[in-house]
What we know:
The structure holds two protein chains of two kinds. By secondary structure, chain A is mainly alpha-helical.
Amino acid sequence: MSDFLHGGWSIYIGAVTLLGLLACLVLLFIASRRQVMAADNSTGHVWDEDLRELNNPLPRWWMVLFVLTVLFSLAYLVLYPGLGSARGSFGWSSVGQYEAEQHEAQAQMAPIYAGFAGQPAEALARNPQAMAIGERLFINNCATCHGSDARGSKGFPNLTDNDWLHGGTPEKIEETITEGRQGTMPPMAAAVGGPVEIHELAQYVLSLSGSPHDPTAQFGKPRFLACAGCHGMDGKGNQAVGAPNLTDKVWLHGWGEEAITAMVVNGKVNVMPAQKERLAPAQIHVLAAYVWGLSHPSAGPAAQSGTP
Amino acid sequence: MTRPVIPIVPVADAAARTVSLYASEQKIYPRAVHGRFAFWRWALVWATQLVFYGLPWLEWNGRQALLFDLEARRFYIFGLVLYPQDFIYLTVLLVLSAGALFLFTAVAGRLWCGFACPQTVYTEIFLWVERHLEGDRAARMKLDAAPWSANKLLRKGGKQAAWIGIGLWTGFSFVGYFTPIRTLAAEALALNLGAWEGFWTLFYGFATYGNAGWMREQVCKYMCPYARFQSAMFDRDTLVISYDPQRGEPRGSRPRSADPKALGKGDCIDCTLCVQVCPTGIDIRRGLQYECIGCAACIDVCNGVMDKMDYPRGLIRYATQNGMDGRWTQGQMWRRVLRPRVLIYGAGMLAISVAFTASLVLRSPFKVDVVRDRGTLARLVDDGRIENVYRLQLMNASEAPQRYRIGVSGLPQVAVASTAEVAVGPAEARWVAVRVQLPPQVARTLGAGAHAIGFEVQQLGGDGPGPAVLEKSTFVVPR
Lengths: 308, 479
């Protein structure tokens, strides 16, 4: 893509650059012309009664340096881009340099990742080098949502509690990172009934995990039929569709009747973005092992080093 | 209204001539000089160069005593391990250097230029080589004027080889401050230097060779900014190298036995030795000039001449302008040297030096940096407690592995919920995620918003409580 709206601008920039260099040479030529000096080594000009301009000549090599800088500029303009949209004979570009450096960095990293590629997550979780890389990948790519300690917050799952929406095997974690996930809870008020039924259902859901609830929970059980399709009759959820387990005390979107009612009435779509465009498969493999290790602290080097 | 016109009077001089505004420089052949000030200059050559060439070879606790490891971003200075965060020390060091330049210049002019500046020091070394291979001033001038011969080629070639050798050794020593010099030496012997090591060795070596061998006084006259602004620090009570015209004039040659007063002459015998020894080629008898680097070579050589003539020394001497005009004694001049300006510079330098030393001695052996998680400001955990997450960077500035305990204070019942004890390797910087919790009733009392807290990190081990660092941060209670 051209940087200029019109090709004429390129010519304009090139002409201004070359004219500037020419002007430098002309200035040098004028300044180095011989000038008449008086016997007292002044120009003979007198200002303000007694102010004279003395001749303290610069050394000749200094002027030669000036000329050399002009020659350097000309050589530079031939070799590198500078004259409008001319590319220069080296064909250098900042994008090209960036890509070359990326390529070099990848070439340096390739053997390290190649060593990790064949290894299962359990082995990588014990490898301090892999876990250090995994931690950096996590901090740079995941911590914004899941937190530096991976414990998440409201709406962003805790990755350290071994409670999984879509499965906690290393393979499933890798899949989650690569492809992303979309958890969809549809609005269910119509299927459940009016405010009374919803209240009973919410109390029943609270009772599933042994949380404090009122006696109307018993009337909520039949209402739960509307939910069982995804969350299962026992409310233990279904990792195949990402339906959370309602019997543990993990409340990703808030605890209490109010939060449950809001979820039943409004539904929710919660998205984990796919990372395959940003991370290479080899990186995702290491990252998945790191995330797996977070909920298996006894399996990794973190168990000894005191990382929270 | 009439505009004032500055009359420019054209040259109407019988002696007017046409000259170029650029001059080709005349080569200067400084004559060898001996004496008190030459001794001091050589003493400083030895002192500065023993330090410069020698320091990188010193060992300390099994590593190079002085190593500026740019890649790992650690500066090792004997027992000190400095982090990039300690850059303030370099700033203070530069402020002290500038202060010293002000002080010395106010007292005795361009002392730095004449005695300690690398340009002077290396020129002195290169001149020493030149003198030993080509002879003193007259011999060198003769050799330069002579046609090429085997003898000339040998002498000139030998000089160049020695100069290049010194330049390369200087470049090598310079790079040795930034990369372990013993490894560097092995690599250099195997001609297997890394690209950057090779570049900087050659670059610094070439700069030394070019500046001390070829550029010499041109650096001082045309390139050095300090040379120009030092003149602005002179005043009429600054000791500068001065020729005493009242005593010396009228100058002229005379037989050694003659009484100058009888001949109507001053003490200057017009031997021009002061011009011959001058490294910048000026005639000090024309007064203070910007080219004068204050090396005092003319004082040394003139004193020798005065001794031979049985005249008192000091026709050229360190004197203040006031002192010279008022015919003051040395004592009178020195009393004026301790003027408010000098005392203020001195007091300022002393204060900064004391603060600098105290800060270095009292500095904590580790540093802490606190970075809040910004994606999630706060969250609710079990039993309604509020939790904030931070990343702490623990920077161990000692060369032993250390353990630290992370504590938090500033709010009632605020506590660290993650592992509080962390191990950090020697000179290592480590990031740890830290969870801080606040009970719900306290949070309710405080209300929503950001509340100031402090992380107290204490070094463990050893007898008694170890050094501690307090870093401020905030704890967010959500609405």
